[in-house]
Amino acid sequence: MSASEQPHPTRPSIAASTGYRLGRVLAPNRAYRWLAGRIEARPRLRRWFTAAERHSKQRLFGCRMCGQCALPATGYACPMSCPKQLRNGPCGGVSANGDCEVYPGRRCVWVIAYERAERAGHSADLTLLQRPVDHRLAGSSSWLNYWQGRDEGLWTSDDGLAHPAPVHRP
Amino acid sequence: MTAPGPTGGAAGTAGGLRAALAERRFAVTAEIGPPRGADPAAVAEKAALLRGWVDAANVTDNQGAHVRMASLAGSLLAARAGVAPVMQLTCRDRNRIALQSDLLAAGALGIPHVLLLTGDHPCFGDHPDAAPVFDLDSVQLVWAARTLRDEGRLLSGRTVAPRPEFLIGAVENPFAPPVRFRAARLGKKIAAGAEFAQTQFVFDVPGFDRFMAAVRDRGLDGRCAVLAGVGPIRSLAALEFVRTKVPGVYVPDEVVRRLRGVPRDRVAAEGVRLCVETIEALRAIPGVAGVHVMAFGYERGVPEILERAGFRRDRAGRLPVGGGVGAG
């Protein structure tokens, strides 16, 4: 699938457990931040790196390069492959058999996300409030953004009581 | 929940859903679908049927992705006709700029309640060639509306003054997979700022009972008024339509058997009876704050359903008095 096609629910081709392991490997640290800085200083290297991320994540997750990866909080199923690109869970139109309302015969990506997260003991992740997408980051490398701290505050565990968290990124 | 203003705003009617919830009365809402056309009387006629029977009426936003008169205009017309509107606003057709602008417009016109939802995909409507926008999702839109109202800030962080005062509502479908996530999803909307929630049609009362148990377990019923969606199925064709053509509606086999088991000329009456019985059953479920009657274009039948379910035409719905746009 290319990012220019309409989004359609995509079942990841790797197990959620592999995703969570990968997530731990990619967790930001000083070395990654240094590396991201070096890559971003060289436009050709940056393009190459971004293309590598695009190719691998498209194959694995149906990634659409939103540039602000939600996978760690969604059972490693990509919410941007939802036809409505919902970041906070499934819409109310999911068929009784779990299929997407827009693409009958394809399982809702949020049903997939829920099943994967629950099996991995991560279902609480799905209750996080996901902030709106920053469309300026579309097409950029979410790994570089992640390592450089540009996507901090993508989500919050706020429960709306006492001092509600702001909807805009802190 | 912020306190209601003395008049409920320029377009508001006395009372409304906010007052019903504040007084802990069992609330009743219904639906007004704006016309495909520019006739203001079409809204006024539907509102006149509901006036006094409901605390508020939802004015739908291009329902089913079919073009209709805007919900903001419909809401204003409903208010003029003496029914407190719940302005529906979906993420389908507007980006965050337009959504926030419409929320400010609703505030300026004194729309007392807004219902914020994702919206049906354009592929189901009369313009399947339209761009699906979905810049925000429903949780984010609720969050933006709460931030706008309570903090006077836009998504950009910029301040607005004065702030709108509406009550914020959301929807939930207790029956759509993953069913065990639905109470948690409602919890997200409540954390984002939803003060009332209307549900998809309930035909499966035991299933709804399980959903409400999960809502109560999470302590959500104390933070948000849940209004259960109901409606009469009045023909076998309508039964087939809601079963197969309306995304997210679940009709259990028992209901199908019951409606198919009566002579054709009795289906309408049986459907209304089923709806009345459903309302009575829902009233007995702890945490249910009211019912939301969606009548599939059968607005004239709503009073009869409500009367048979034990309600009276005693809800504040008098014509607004004094100045303001609402006085028409």
From TrEMBL, chain A:
It comes from Pseudonocardia asaccharolytica DSM 44247 = NBRC 16224. It comes from the Bacteria. InterPro entries: DUF5981. Residues 45-135 form the Methylene-tetrahydrofolate reductase C-terminal-like domain. Pfam families: DUF5981. This is Methylene-tetrahydrofolate reductase C-terminal-like domain-containing protein.
UniProtKB/TrEMBL annotation, chain B:
GO terms for molecular function: FAD binding; methylenetetrahydrofolate reductase (NADH) activity. Pathway: One-carbon metabolism; tetrahydrofolate interconversion. Keywords: FAD, Flavoprotein, Oxidoreductase. It catalyses: (6S)-5-methyl-5,6,7,8-tetrahydrofolate + NAD(+) = (6R)-5,10-methylene-5,6,7,8-tetrahydrofolate + NADH + H(+). GO terms for biological process: methionine biosynthetic process; tetrahydrofolate interconversion. InterPro entries: FAD-linked_oxidoreductase-like (IPR029041), Mehydrof_redctse-like (IPR003171). This is Methylenetetrahydrofolate reductase.
